[in-house]
Design a protein that fits this description.
3 domains; two-stranded antiparallel sheet; 4-stranded parallel β-sheet; 564 residues; globular; mainly alpha
Length: 564
């Protein structure tokens, strides 16, 4: 009897090919070529910002882009170098050299494979949202600070790696500003913004790259280019070479390797979630981590950087019509073709254009829109965000990751401990409970009730996905009973907001009922009533059912008017 490999451990590339067609290949071809062109300037920019040559980023995009699509657990995920790694890579190269970076990348890849193989793909959800926002805010500021020199064309030999020393150096040399480079960088930002406003389908990075390069060549602008700084990029296939193994570096690289693995896991799974929402699919987190791990083990063998899922490129891939992981493989082959046949042209690309592109990338990855919402939450959530943000910017990303995990553990213990209560059962308590019980309530056909039982904190929030799993089969009114939800945090609050938005997008009404003191207070602080309406937050299930009657009557009345 032949052994059948379980689907749960098969890559999405294998599963997608079961019903593959010529039409799907055409869509994948268009999407793959498009995202491959978009990936070119980003791959070079991330590599340069990390302190390496531009071709290292292209090699990484080719090798890891192909392997992540081939072996990963997401249908439309695009892998490659990303901004999340820029700061940590620069620190590793500064401390341990390129050999240290390659060793660290292999170690991180092994950790990712172990995480995926042992079923820890879902463990990333145990990181609270304030910590993730703190990371991304801090990394965005650090990336932007590394691009100031090229953005303004400042004459600085070497920019310090420490943030405050970097700012001091940039301020001291700001008088050496190059006006041509500054105008070029500002024009790049403007092109990216305009393209985004006109249509998400327009690859703004490619438009800016071509326009900026053409301007430098035609008008002979006195700005630094890839050719003047690096001598261009070598044409031909990436060369296979085993990294030099140094046993003396292993201990010092353990912390950075864990940081790279954690950042890779967080970024890739966040990107996969975005991919799921846009493509109406469901990724396999464990297979995704195995694919990411293998890609990171192989990348240094060809002189590449650490890699993970890239949210912006993944979104571009889906908007361009991608149907399967084949699009990601074509994206990788597109980069390879550019390397083989257009390498001499790459030397003409201005550094100011790449700096402008990275400035926009750093802004987009910063999660800035989350901050006003975060400031409405508890002092604990705000303090966790501030500590993580400050450590990321002013200390070290490895320290920030370690401190973030400790804070997550302490926060979880504190929140769970606060849910324990001891109280006497009184007549009033029994009478009050009658309004919340379901046994004597008549639930109409146009409403359904889901309940959350226990603390709804980070680590448990993905369970609420059951509400929208079969969203088109739900009745017009969905009631979420919170009577037995003992605690709520910002990550849980964010999950509830996502459910409310998904239901609203399909014309359904969400009603919350029975929230206890702490969850009710946080729901009010987060201004959740602005999302679903104050009238849809009820004290008990009896009141929620009355509200469901009102909602359905209005729907019936509107439908009758529409028929007349």
């Amino acid at each position: 009897m032949a052994f059948a490999f379980p689907d749960e451990w098969l890559p999405k590339s294998v599963l997608s090919l079961r019903d593959y067609s010529r039409q799907k290949f055409f869509h994948d071809l268009v999407a793959g070529v498009t995202v491959g062109l978009v990936a070119l300037p980003l791959a070079m920019a991330f590599s340069i910002a990390s302190g390496l040559t531009p071709q290292a980023g292209i090699y990484c995009g080719i090798v890891t882009g192909f392997l992540i699509s081939l072996l990963g657990g997401s249908k439309t995920q695009i892998g490659g170098p990303t901004g999340a790694f820029v700061v940590v890579i620069a620190a590793i190269v500064a401390a341990h050299g390129v050999d240290g970076l390659f060793m660290c990348t292999v170690m991180a890849g092994i950790l990712l494979v172990i995480m995926g193989a042992t079923g820890m793909g879902s463990a990333v959800k145990f990181i609270p949202r304030p910590i993730i926002i703190g990371f991304t805010n801090g990394i965005a500021i650090l990336i932007a600070s590394t691009q100031v020199r090229d953005f303004f064309g400042l004459q600085i030999g070497k920019v310090p790696g420490v943030f405050w020393l970097r700012i001091e150096t940039l301020a001291r040399h700001f008088s050496s500003l190059n006006y041509a480079a500054t105008v070029l960088a500002l024009a790049t930002v403007a092109i990216l913004v305009v393209c985004r406003l006109v249509s998400n389908r327009i690859p703004g990075a490619i438009v800016a790259l071509l326009a900026g390069t053409a301007a430098v060549v035609l008008f002979k602008l006195p700005v630094e280019t890839i050719g003047s700084r690096f001598g261009g990029i070598p044409s031909g296939l990436p060369h296979f070479a085993l990294p030099r193994f140094r046993a003396d570096l292993i201990y010092g690289l353990l912390g950075p390797a864990v940081t790279v693995a954690m950042l890779g896991a967080i970024e890739s799974l966040m990107s996969a979630v975005v991919s799921d929402r846009m493509s109406n699919d469901r990724h396999n987190p464990n297979v995704e981590l195995i694919g990411q791990g293998v890609a990171n083990i192989v990348s240094p063998l060809f002189g590449g950087l650490p890699a993970t899922g890239a949210i912006a490129r993944t979104a571009t891939n889906i908007r361009s019509g991608a149907q399967s992981p084949v699009a990601g493989m074509i994206h990788s082959l597109t980069l390879l073709c550019i390397l083989l046949f257009a390498a001499p042209l790459v030397r003409l690309i201005p550094m100011a254009v790449l700096a402008g592109i990275l400035m926009v990338v750093s802004y987009n990855m910063g999660e800035w829109r989350e901050i006003p919402q975060l400031l409405k939450l508890t002092k604990t959530d705000i303090s966790v965000w501030l500590v993580t943000f400050a450590l990321t910017v002013f200390a070290d990303l490895t320290v920030a990751v370690e401190a973030g995990m400790i804070l997550a553990a302490l926060l979880f213990i504190s929140r769970v401990a606060s849910t324990t209560t001891v109280s006497q059962v009184t007549d009033d308590y029994v009478e009050d409970g009658r309004m919340h019980i379901l046994q004597d309530k008549d639930i109409p056909y146009y409403a359904t009730i889901f309940r959350i039982h226990g603390p709804f904190l980070f680590g448990a929030t993905e369970k609420v996905a059951v509400v929208t799993a079969n969203i088109h089969q739900l009745p017009p009114v969905v009631i979420l009973r919170l009577r037995n939800m003992t605690a709520l945090d910002s990550t849980g609050m964010f999950a509830l907001e996502e459910v409310a938005k998904e239901l609203h997008a399909t014309g359904r009404t969400l009603i919350l009922c029975g929230a206890r003191e702490q969850p009710a207070q946080l729901i009010h602080q987060a201004e959740f009533e602005d999302i679903i309406g104050q009238e849809n937050i009820c004290e008990n299930v009896q009141e929620a059912l009355r509200r469901a009657d009102d909602v359905f009557e209005k729907l019936e009345a509107n439908a009758a008017l529409g028929r007349e």
